[in-house]
Specification:
The protein has about 170 residues and is α+β, with helices and mostly antiparallel strands. The chain has one domain: OB fold (Dihydrolipoamide Acetyltransferase, E2P), CATH 2.40.50. The protein is about 35% helix and about 25% strand. It contains four helices and eight strands, in the order E-E-E-E-E-H-E-E-H-E-H-H. The strands form two sheets. The protein has a six-stranded mixed sheet. Helix 2 packs parallel to helix 3. The protein is globular and about 45 Å long.
Length: about 170
Amino acid sequence: MVIKVFKAKPFVIDGDTLVSWENEQPIYYRIRWIDTPETKRADDFVKTPYDESQWKWGELAKSYLIDYVKNSNCVIYVEKGLDIYGRTLIDLYRDRKAIVTNYQRLISAAGLSAAYLPFPQNINLSPRDEITIYCHIIRNQYTARIRKEGIWRDPNFIMPWEWRRLKR
């Protein structure tokens, strides 16, 4: 495991995606194991109440990540491979690598993301950090759902992956 620090604060694309530049080339980072609502694009228009709900929560999730990055002295990440789109999968931390500063844990507790977890048999959960993050996401999402926080209080909200599927 290699712990890295962004040289400059990364640019926030949405609630689970960042971009930074190295040698004038963009490098896209996808925060793993969470899926935040989508943000509205210039060519999007409202067709259903689900669209408005998705975009409203998408903007709140994006703002959450912007504040997380802005309010940090340094942004730390651990690379975990590549996704199917070539983005670098990461675990994200603020100021120090500790579970209390882990972004996935915090945004799931705020009710602004849905767990997007692989089946446990498909990943190596033996490193303590892996199982700790995995369990915190599950527990925090469950608590947010019970308390009806964030996306979990909106009757028009559908999971981001379902919304994307319906848009195809």
